[in-house]
Structure formats: structure tokens, C-alpha cells
Write a structure and sequence with these properties.
The chain is of the alpha+beta class. The protein has one domain (about 10-200). Helices cover about 35% and strands about 35% of the residues. It has helices at about 10-40, 105-115, 125-130, 185-200; strands spanning about 45-50, 60-65, 70-80, 85-90, 100-105, 140-145, 150-155, 160-165, 170-180. A 9-stranded mixed beta sheet has the order 1-2-3-4-5-9-8-7-6. Helix 2 crosses helix 3. The protein is globular, with a radius of gyration of 17 Å. The chain starts with 7 loop residues before the first helix and ends in a 6-residue tail after the last helix.
């Protein structure tokens, strides 16, 4: 089970051990969901399923289902040192074998809720809202380094951008905060457009 006292490396190892089985289960599930959509003559459907692994980690699987296409993402829910929920997302960098883990803190989700004026009361509802609206990850751009040598990055998402840091040696990313589109400076708006265009030609890569 992933617990706060673990190092980034220990958390990532536990995450990847779970993720392999969870991803396989999601692959099997989406075929059943597609069959159901076709049988009901629907054009679009969404589904959120909750699973607990043998390691006692809680996972949420978010599906967007169409008749001939399915997008899904699997998110592990853990807690921080204060007992608040955090979300862990797999981020594929360049190749499917190179997986980072992105950690979203409750501070991130609080800013997401506040700055989009969602007025969601329960933390888990905010987490669900974010991932239901962000099944497709954009490219991100690395910028300056922190005093500790970690790389800062900027990533567009629906409604705004993520500011975070990447610990490349541990392959661990911290999603620090969320900034809504109405708060962006002119240069940041230009960066968002650049990354969206870059994504079309270079899926799953760093700009």
C-alpha cells in the first residue's frame, strides 16, 4: 500500500506494480463498455469505476466511450502526511516504457475548484471532476530549475494550466498548482498555443 512515509522511488515501484494489473483490467472493461454503447445505440457515454488492488490501493478508472473509440485513464488515490487525498497519474514520456508518476496534491485541487468557480464541496468530487474533464494529456514544456536542481514545467489542461516540478532521477512529477485561463499572461497564452500545436505533431512528448 502506498503511504506518505515512502520515498518517491518506493511509491513509484508500488504504483507501477499496481498499474500493470489495473491497466489490463481497464483494457478488458472498455471492450464491454463499447459493446454496451452499441447495444443501446448511444453515440457517447462516460463511466467512472472504482477498484481496490491486492496491495490495498484505491484506483479510479475514467472512461469516455464512443461507438468506435474509447479514452480512459487510471488514477491511484492515496493520502498525504496530513491525511488528505492525493491523486497519482501515470505520465508516458516519449515511450510506453518510460513512465513518470504525477502527484496532484489537495492544494492543486483546491485551486482548480476555486479558480474555475466550480463550488464543489467534497474533495473527492473535485478530483473526479478534474480527471473526467482531462482524459487527454497535453505536451508540457520544461523551463528553469529550482534551487534543488529539479525542473519546473508548464502544462495546459482544460480551463487552464498546471505549474509543477519534475524530479527526473526518481521519475516523479509534482503538480504544484492550477492557474485558470483568465489569469494567464500574454506570453503564457502564446506558450499554450505552441504546446497545443506541438502536441498534434509530437504526441506523448516533451516540448
Amino acid at each position: 500500500m502506498i503511504v506518505p512515509k515512502m520515498t518517491y522511488g518506493e511509491k513509484r515501484n508500488q504504483f507501477l506494480h499496481d498499474y500493470k494489473a489495473v491497466h489490463a483490467r481497464a483494457n478488458h472493461t472498455y471492450r464491454q463498455l463499447v459493446t454496451g454503447v452499441k447495444r443501446r445505440h448511444q453515440t457517447h457515454a462516460t463511466e467512472v469505476l472504482e477498484w481496490t488492488t491486492s496491495a490495498r490501493n484505491k484506483w479510479l478508472a475514467f472512461f469516455e466511450v464512443r461507438a468506435h473509440q474509447v479514452n480512459f485513464i487510471c488514477i491511484c488515490i492515496s493520502i498525504d502526511h496530513g491525511g488528505l487525498p492525493i491523486a497519482l497519474e501515470p505520465i508516458v514520456v516519449d515511450t510506453k516504457e518510460n513512465i513518470y508518476v504525477a502527484e496532484y496534491s489537495m492544494h492543486f485541487f483546491k485551486r482548480y475548484n476555486e479558480r474555475l468557480k466550480l463550488e464543489i464541496v467534497k474533495p473527492m468530487q473535485t478530483i473526479r471532476h478534474y480527471f473526467k474533464h482531462n482524459l487527454h494529456s497535453e505536451s508540457y514544456i520544461k523551463s528553469s530549475r529550482t534551487e534543488l536542481g529539479d525542473l519546473k514545467f508548464f502544462q495546459p489542461v482544460n480551463g487552464g494550466v498546471i505549474l509543477g516540478t519534475s524530479h527526473d532521477e526518481e521519475k516523479w512529477m509534482q503538480m504544484k498548482t492550477f492557474i485558470s485561463n483568465d489569469m494567464l499572461k500574454a506570453t503564457q497564452v502564446e506558450t499554450v498555443e505552441y504546446l497545443k500545436n506541438y502536441k498534434l505533431d509530437h504526441p506523448n512528448t516533451i516540448a
